[in-house]
Amino acid sequence: MENRDTVDFGSAGSVLRRSGRPRTATDYVSAALRRSILNGELAGGTRLSLADLAATFDVSTTPVREALRELSFEGLVHIDSYRGGTVNAVTRSEVEEIIRIRQVLEPMAVGEAVAGMTPEILAGAEAVLARMEAADTWDGWVQGNRAFHQKLYEAASSRRLIALIKGLQDTTVVFMSSTLMRSPDLRGTATRDHLAMVEAARTGDADRLIEITLRHLAIPIST
After folding, report:
1. Superfamily of domain 92-221
2. Is 105 exposed, middle or buried (0-12, 13-18, 19+ CB in 10 A)?
3. Which of 40, 58, 70, 179 is disulfide-compatible with 1, CB 3.0–4.6 A?
4. pLDDT, tens only, 95-134
C-alpha cells in the first residue's frame, strides 16, 4: 500500500485522506470516506464505485461494500446494489421540511429527556462537548455534534421517537456539515446553544431546553 497521506479519487476529482489503518479494512475505508464526506471533499452526489474504492484503498470490494453500508446507516451514503453508492445529497427545501418535522418531534423528546436526566448522562454530554472543542478536524466536530444530541436523548423513554429523530438528523448531516463549514461563525452559535442545553437539562428547565432546541434546529438554514 502507498504511504502517501492523500490519494486522488478517480474521476470524482476529490481527495481521500489516508491515516493509520484501524482494526479492520472496513473501519479503514469507512473512516476515510466519512472524513472526506464531512470535510466536504466528497460532495453530495459524488459516485462511489466499489471497484474504484477497492483500488484506491488496496482492499477487496467486500470491506468497501460493508463500509458503504455502515455509512448509509449514518445518512452519509445512498447505496445501490453491486455497483457502489452515492454521497447523500438533499436539497434546501427537503432540509427545511425535515427541520419542521423535527421541530414537532423534538419538544416531545426534550420533555422525556428532562424527566429522565441523570448526572451520568449530563457528564457524558459535557465530555462530548469537550472533545468537540478540542477537535482539530471538521469531521471530528460534526461527529461530536451528532453524538452530543444523541447523548442528551438517552434520557428519553421513547426509543421509537428517538430513532425517528436520529433518522431525520442522519438524512441532513451532509447538508448541515456543508452549511456550517461555509459559515464558520455558526459553529460558535451552535456551541453556545449546546452549553445552554446542558445547563437547562441540569436545572430541569424543560421549557428553556425546548426553546433552545427549536432555535438550534434552524441553524443550518439560517444563512
Report:
1. GntR ligand-binding domain-like (1.20.120.530)
2. middle
3. 58
4. 999 999 999 999 999 999 999 999 999 999 999 999 998 9
How far apart CA 205 and CA 123 sit, in angstroms, is 17
* Annotation: CATH topology of 6-87: Arc Repressor Mutant, subunit A (1.10.10)
Q: Give 185's contacts (C-beta < 8 A, 6+ positions apart).
A: none
Grid look-up 447523500 returns 88
Angle (CA) 215 218 219, round 5° = 100
Cell digits for 86?
A: 452515492
Span 171-190, average pLDDT: 83
CA dihedral 51, 89, 73, 162 (to 10 degrees): 180
> What's the pTM value of the predicted model, to 2 decimals?
0.76
Q: What is the C-alpha separation between 67 and 34, in angstroms, rounded?
A: 9
Residue 6: all three cell numbers together = 492523500
Residues of CATH 1.20.120.530 domain(s) within the chain? 92-221
